[in-house]
Amino acid sequence: EQKMESSTRKLEVQKIGGKGPLDCNISAIRHCFNELDDYLPKNLILKEKELNLFQEWFNLLFSGEFNILVHGLGSKRKLFENFQEFLSSYHCFVVDGLFPGMSVSTIFEQIEINLGLKSRVKFKTKINDWAEELIDKTKEEFIFILINHIDSPQLRSRQQQEALSILVRSKRIRLIASVDHVNAALLWDQVFNFWINKARGDSEYR
């Protein structure tokens, strides 16, 4: 019959190279597992938290109902690069909104080039028509567009935002964007159907 002595339980387990029961301190083992996170490298813990965040983002985007707007301290550049890696099985475009000459037309061109599409729109100044055409040509694809600094001067105009909003009306073209403005949630109406998410970047702005 097994005996309990304080927190020590006598388990009928044969000792290696000897005889008799093996003392097993259940409380000590439980405490060890509870404190295990303190002994894990911080980067492993952060990696797990990041993966959980990415899975949450993916579920929201893949539902076709939401786009995501990220705000918070620090640059989101590395965070978005890691999310791009997470989405490696899909078409994914990472855009730096602060890059000189960046525009929604540039984004549309890159989508066409990378997917091998030929545009029927003769005048690319009709950017809204271009967005509609891209929706029609990518019905069989699932595309993620990641934009750092969507509130940059290059992308902030009404024309740029309207064309982009038309493109992401497609449930198969999803947008995740970062903003610098502290009142980010007030910058757009429901046209993008943004899910507002606060996330801290690991690096300073650059």
From TrEMBL:
Origin recognition complex subunit 2 RecA-like domain span: 46-190
Example of a GO cellular component annotation carried by this entry: nuclear origin of replication recognition complex
GO molecular function: DNA replication origin binding
The protein, known as: Origin recognition complex subunit 2
Pfam family, one: RecA-like_ORC2
Physiological role: Component of the origin recognition complex (ORC) that binds origins of replication. DNA-binding is ATP-dependent. ORC is required to assemble the pre-replication complex necessary to initiate DNA replication.
GO biological process, any: DNA replication
Quaternary state and interactors: Component of the origin recognition complex (ORC).
Main localization category: nucleus
Keyword terms, alphabetized: DNA replication, Nucleus
Segments forming a coiled coil: none
Cell compartment(s), UniProt: Nucleus
Protein family: Belongs to the ORC2 family.
Keyword Protein biosynthesis among record annotations: no
